[in-house]
Amino acid sequence: MKTIQEVTIYDIARKLKVSPATVSRSLSNHPAVSKKTRKRIADAAKSMGYRSNLFASNLRKQRTNTLGVIVPKLNSNFVSSVLAGIEKVANQSGYNLIISQSQENEKKEIANAATMFNSRVDGLIVSLAFDTKDLSHFDPFFDKGIPVIFFDRVSYDKSSTNVVIDNFKAGYEATQHLIGQGCKRIAHITGNLSRNVYADRLKGYRLALTEHDLVFQKSQLIINNLDEQSAVEAANQILAMKKRPDGIFITNDSCAALCMQVFKEAGLYIPEDMAIVGFNNDLITRVVEPNLTTINYPGEEMGEIVAHHLVNHLEDIAPLAVTNTIILKSELIIRESSLHHKNASK
Amino acid sequence: MKTIQEVTIYDIARKLKVSPATVSRSLSNHPAVSKKTRKRIADAAKSMGYRSNLFASNLRKQRTNTLGVIVPKLNSNFVSSVLAGIEKVANQSGYNLIISQSQENEKKEIANAATMFNSRVDGLIVSLAFDTKDLSHFDPFFDKGIPVIFFDRVSYDKSSTNVVIDNFKAGYEATQHLIGQGCKRIAHITGNLSRNVYADRLKGYRLALTEHDLVFQKSQLIINNLDEQSAVEAANQILAMKKRPDGIFITNDSCAALCMQVFKEAGLYIPEDMAIVGFNNDLITRVVEPNLTTINYPGEEMGEIVAHHLVNHLEDIAPLAVTNTIILKSELIIRESSLHHKNASK
DNA sequence: ATGAAAGCGCTAACAC
DNA sequence: GTGTTAGCGCTTTCAT
Predict the structure, then answer these.
(1) What distance in Å separates the CA atoms of residue B341 and residue B180, rounded to the nearest whole number?
(2) Domains in chain B: how many in total?
(3) Together in a domain, B117 and B153
(4) Staple A168 to which of A85, A204, B213, B243, CB 3.0 to 4.6 Å?
(5) CA B96 – C1' C4 distance (Å)?
(6) Chain B CA closest to residue A91
(7) Per-residue three-class SS string for A207-231
(8) Pair (A37, A106) in one structural domain
(9) Is the Cβ of B65 closer than 8 Å to some Cβ of chain A?
(10) What's the Cα-to-Cα distance from A212 to each of A178, B9, B29, B60, B341, rounded to whole Å?
């Protein structure tokens, strides 16, 4: 990499016969610099091609104006919406964003956390990988008083701030809706249960079953990693069941849409033979046929809230309470994929 | 923000009665440190909770190990796939990623570029906003010899490295395919034509028409920003045409899927009444009915290539030729949405 | 194999 | 309103 001489505040100071301190003050809009000097300095800076050196500044100020973000994967609709929200707020507030993905792998998450720590991010935003058991890789942040906010995939056993939706309620409502449409055997396809989002949705699903005198069957619970291949496998698994379900609650829209494909190819009618509820309200829900009933999960809004919360804390506008859970509204959006089930009891 | 005393190499040096220089060398695996000292230092560093100060290091080394990325929007399937690819490579190679989105707005892109410049990224990766006309906001990078690589939305009038697919060829093939299926009036829905991707696809579309003795009709060209609302509007616009097209080439899968919805609701049969070809090969193409013919556009691979290229250059493994365009393979994937058109001529 | 010392560019406390 | 000064923590000659 070419190293071309950088212009520093010393160069400007020398040229203008003022002190570096004045230049520094002027450039950071300190009030105690006269209009005239300020103008001269601004002009000189521009004409000389000056750019501030964030490292020197950070080194001096012990602060980076950088937020770290660790997500399970970048290429997901939900995640990219959240990131869009975070970026918007961070950018408005003058923070840079360092982003990395754990690829659903605890080891990589640990490495990412270490990098973020060494990069001295002012705050960290995290959504956990599928298989993260232990959160001790975030201890360095807690120990140093660097705020960490979790969103979506959170952990309840850490005294940190969480931004989530009520997954239990969402799972309950999704299932209850299927029951209301007359479903008697409701399957559930979901992700790794060590993650709150999936565990809570499952709990909601189970409660709804129980409350309506339906028995939870382990055989009707499919746990996979919700990717394209697993979706097709899960759908085939369901087709192969002796007592085929008449409804499924799938905690991911893409997965649900893919399952629907498989079912339709197998000759089933949706929702008559199989009612389906997805999760997230991605675009895909409005495009598959029949349109997919789902839970609306406001990703971009979640990102904005997470970032606002963190920034406010960093700017000392608001404290980050020790255990502070923010729950966003989510709601069931009913579409054709689950309506008017043939066995509708009412 | 709490400021808790950080451990420095001086602390370690003092404790171990060695010099800071030795500690520094040891920590960065310089060969000229004895095994024994190395071990002592590593242990002390760990036990004292040392973390390296990247700012001091960067300040000293005049290098950041950070790559900047500016994309038009974060919440897009294609973009997030590319980012996933970039992140993978960057992370492997020990680079951090600073990411920002221009929100399809030149002004924001300019601001983002300035931030990246001040953050002293070692290299910059850019996909241009819809409306960026002038590229002078990247001049500071060129002037300082900081490598900038463009991908997807590139500009040909800058002597910089571009990573793209052959959009002209893709547009040609998509259109030719529709013609081969018997379409006589082929419309085209696309994005802002000041962007190469859309301009080139249009050129391909026009050439294919001309070569097959079909006349390009301005009225059959719809330019919008490809979002959900515009998609529906465009579809309605097409339905309202006096001479309704019998085929459409749409440069975006989501947009194509949404149009298909509108057409189907209006009672048209796809592909019999209207053959459709999309672009990107998103998941959605395999889920809509009928499945969507599209151009496969390998986003993650593109991200990996872009990042590799940049990193190799930074590591002096490979030069970044002055004008260097890398063209990735893309291909037409034929599915039901465009097949066996009723007017098929052969 | 290790140490001494200079300096990367900036900011802030203190002086005037 | 402006200047002086002392580091922030690290790397890297140049010695030894």
Answers:
(1) 9
(2) 3
(3) yes
(4) A204
(5) 34
(6) B100
(7) HHHHHCCCCCCHHHEEECCCCHHHH
(8) no
(9) no
(10) 11, 64, 64, 67, 50
